[in-house]
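Q: I have 60 residues here and want to know how they pack in 3D. Can you give me a structure?
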Amino acid sequence: MKKIRVRQVRSAIDRPKRQKDTLIALGLRRMHQSAEHTATPQILGMVAAVKHLISVEEIG
């Protein structure tokens, strides 16, 4: 499967708890932190839920 790198580019301050929990589940705890994941439907669903707070790039 494809791999993706997600990076938090906007703050989670004043966001609903559900969005904060989604960021933590993606492995993003602070600004400009990045994490790599396999592009499964579950991960892509989490990415879609917080797409306004992160940037996504495909890895080779």
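Q: Anything worth noting?
A: The longest strand covers residues 3-8. The beta strands are 3-8, 34-38, 54-59.
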